[in-house]
Amino acid sequence: MSQHLNETYDYSAHHDHDEGTVGTLPGGAQTTGESSFSSVARKEWIHAVFGKSLQQPKGKGLAQIDEYLCTRIYIESDLYQGESLGITLSRLTLGLYVRSVKPGSEAALAGVLPQSVLVSINDIHLLAEPSKQALERIWQYEGLFASVSKYAKPYSKDAASFVMDLPKEDLMIQHPTRLTFIRNGQMYAVLLLSNPQYGIEWAPCGNFALVKRNDGSHTEIPRGSIIAGVNENPIDDLDHLTSATFLKEVMDLELPIDMLVCWPPATARSGYWERSEIAKHNSGSPQTNSKGYKPIFSKEHDGVKTTVHSLFSRAKKKPQPEIPKNDWGLELDDLATAVGSGEVLVPESSPEKANSVLTKVYLPCSHLEGRLLESWDVEQSLLYNLKYYWTMNMIGDSAGDFVGHRNLSDLFLDFPKPLFQDVLLPLIACCRHTSPGSPTAQERLHKMLFDEIINLAETKASFAPSMELIASSLQEIELRNILRRIREKRAASSPIVKNNSNFTFDELDKGAASPAKSPAKAKPVAEIAGSPSSIPQAASPTKKRFGLFGKKSNAKSPSAKTTSPKKSKSPKRNTKEQSKTIADAASPGGKALSLLLDEQDKQEQDRQIIGAREIMFAKTLKFGDELLEICQDIERSLLKTFPQRLAGWALQPWSSTKETALQHVTNSMRDRLMLCSNTEFLNPLDSDELIVGIDTTECYILPSAHFPVLLTFDCQDLENRESPNNVFGVQKFYRTTVEVMHVRCAGKAAVRRNFVVHASVGGSIQETNPSTHTDVETNTQMWDDGAALVFDTSSSWGPPQTVSLRLSESFVTNTGATGTKENKDKKQRYLEDIGVSWADLTSVVDEKAGGRIQKRTVVLTPKLLSSKISGYFDQHGELSDENRPKVENMEIKIRVTTQTLEMAPLIKKSDYTDGPLRKRSLLYKHDDDVRQDLFSIDFIKTCDAILKSCGLDLKLVTFRCIPMGDKQGFIEWVHGSVPLSELSRVVADSILGGKTKSPTSDASSISEENEKSMVALAGLSKYETLQRWNSDVTGSNSSGSAPNNPVQDYLRTFNFDVDAPYMIRKDAMDTYVKSCAGYCAITYILGVGDRHLDNLLLHQTGHFFHCDYSFILGNDPKKYLPVRITEEMVNGMGGKDSDGFVMFLSLTCAAFLTLRRSENVRHLLSMIRMMEGCYLPDIEKNQDIESAIMGVRNRLRLDLSEDEAIVFMEKLIEESSSSKMWLAVDAMHTLGKRF
């Protein structure tokens, strides 16, 4: 029973420290005697092992470990009179407790509390372990040694073949670790997710008196037992010194000796686990004693057989070479002895403190494989995430208020309500969690979360729509029904519903949560291309509906009658001025009455807004159902059976038949949407915004998987607010007029020449007519009509900053060499490039107060440069004169005028609001789990917040999304962004949808069309750049090569600065490099798959970002590759030798190292942990949630040092940017776009 109580010391040898004296060990380590012991920890340990009272002959402590033995020994005084007892007592330190926890360490984050007694590590019990051995094992697991000595010995001899040849990394902990503690009589467990060190200062629980020797005088006192009581002095007060003192006093008084001796449970020591593991490996019994330990059985006493082992005989040590010492000047073995005996205080575990070799080797720590979730309470995960999120968003003294919150109920009382808006998904997801604990714990957590969500819905009406949609998508039906009743109750009290006696929610909400109907088998596309009426019509059980491609009806839509309640305008309310007049007339209490009327007016307005929100949200659900039917019709019309699709479509290039079919279906969809154009409903992404109309001309079908639909809406705010919820801010409309004044040539070069100028502003291109006359005296070419080009643009990130110019010379040639006279006289114009130029419009678009630009005109003379300029910058972005490509010496003079425009008024405005009008585009996806997109965006936003809190702002842009069910939802469309598939194309007319082809390009038109991105095939992309207008587009006979740096050309088109590196405004280039770095690190950690070029986007401001998170956590429909860095992206930074690429590598590694910190690892892994029970595809369907968690943890490479992690990330980027596998990935995606 006491086979591992061998590391003890003779009492007399350490007597000089028993009085609490303090000494100094070599290296300056402080000796303390008894000062490291804690009476609280000692008592806790005794209760954990033996319980609050010792039971004979055996029993369990509060730790519930089987089982200790206890026996009573009674010796009459006449049996020892004049003699000694013949026993030697030795000091034995047992167990470890947490003396302190380093703030911010992994242990502190996990919730380890001081004064907690350690019970086990990954089910390896250390409760009754001698303190020295427990410390040695923990320090080995934490890796606090430089190497393993060639003279090292295993903890048990049988383990030699298992541990002696293992590398250092295998002896350390490289996986999540569960520590079990007991404190105040209560057991608790924490899960440490990062690798050591954990930041715990350990100390021994207490000294105990071990019966080390017995000379045979009194054999009833068993050797190897612990003194647990001497004549009514309990074990709480007995260490080796007090036990000897009490025994001596009793013997001096010649009183009978009444002793209790005990043996802690064998299973409470790590040796039992080691022998069990070795026995399992050898297919033996786990009860087999280790080789070399021979049991000696003493006689039975009170029915208890005590077992003693010959562990205390020490063989003479063989001389060994000197082992390097650590910073304390002690060998690790000696340091464990000193700390375990209470002689040394160790501030905390630290690798710098242990440079010695390992002299005793223990079996590697066991794994929690398959048991990770059992060790990780979802309530604690939610508590940690909320506290961490609160910390990152709090400002001032209140930032630390949450520290005292140790449970959710206390946290919910103080958590700021506005912050809940960003944590709705985990909050509702945890309601679905099935805890491995008791049913009582499950019910308590479920009720607490329900109460908080309901309270939030009642107090923050703007959150309620999102909460109901998320609850419905997660199939949390009970919560969804409660939220719906709250919505109906709130709406019933509003004046809008009270004034409309015929209004009910039943019709509006009908079918809102019903599952999607299975699409019926449709006729082939070939049959519908010419005849819209041949499409089968879907029947509705409740009303007659016109199919997507059915005949148009002049009557109003039936849905409009049922979904649009009759709106009764509320009586006009007094304005504040009118209220003040009434109040003044009612003197002397006029001022008080004025305030009362103002308050009543505000309350009435709030009730109107709340009522409008609830009614409009019900109509949003109805619109979602209608939209789902539209999308199912689209898919049935464009998709055939798989064999037909594979043979007839997927293997064939894009053709006019496909383009016609897509356009026909798009027009039919727009006709169907016209029936809903007068319907008002709440913006599903923004509950403070009302959709008052659909701009059907800006609605498109994307030829991608399941054919997502892009919808453009006219919107108004329910109530005025300074900044609408948008990615870049408030949308504004601008008009930029570019007037080409003249082109001046050197010498007499302008005589008899005709020039054409193409100008680009905000991504659209216009061209002048050929110049009409020449001023010989000034050598200039001019235009009679003034050559004024007008560009109307809109953006939410500011007015246009750059105008791009391209100068070409116009030639006319005969195209008919033979045939009739008409053919011979036929002329064709073609253009020959001369050069390009850019003009910085910063001085033109100086914004005035109020965010408007007054009409402002400036004259600019930009310098003409070669169109191939992107290939001549050095690694610093400089363009030296010797490297500058030569162009004809010419000058272009332009006059630019910019002003802000008002948005054109709508024909119909809302009766519920008079807020400003704006456009909003949303992408509707069906048959895709948008819940996974929502989770991924939350993950990216969390990483961004973490990086910003650490001073690393990587300019990350994220968009919003909301699920409308488990297979459909809305995603915010980011205007001003284009996919890299557009920028990387060779042909120039990709964005124009083939509208500007050269007459000679018919032979290559098919291959050109197949290179288009899905947005170009849909006909909605409007980005154009002059650098991509190769000579084929303008009709030149010269070869048109691809632009060698499309990313820089794109950024320069919108952010020109002649003095900046690469002639791109520094803030835009920095934004590009930083956002590339941020998304590179985060998407790698998240394991985002399916990274073809359509899913990588670049915004005009330089923000790079990803979209479409249908495959995450290492899943990919094709081959999973961990990082996507394209050659075009690297060239956009300036190439692999450039300063920009060096900055990119540095920032990517910095972000990776930051997210690997223990507090951040716990936060990110907790986000996945809380999604248990939601059955997201890549979290619980395609793999189990534990594999998803461990996949993220493995990608963080916690086994590497910071220097090794930097090398790893740099190598990963290098392999990705040069991998040819991405060519196959993009080719497979291109094939998949051919529906």
From TrEMBL:
Any one cellular component term from GO for this entry? endosome
A Gene Ontology biological process term? endocytosis
Please give the InterPro entries that the UniProt record associates with this protein. Kinase-like_dom_sf, PDZ_sf, PI3/4_kinase, PI3/4_kinase_cat_dom, PI3/4_kinase_cat_sf
Q: Where is the composition biased (Low complexity)?
A: 512-523
The organism encoding this protein is Cylindrotheca closterium
Residue limits of the PI3K/PI4K catalytic domain?
Answer: 892-1221
An example of a GO molecular function for this protein is:
1-phosphatidylinositol-3-kinase activity
The name on file for this protein is PI3K/PI4K catalytic domain-containing protein
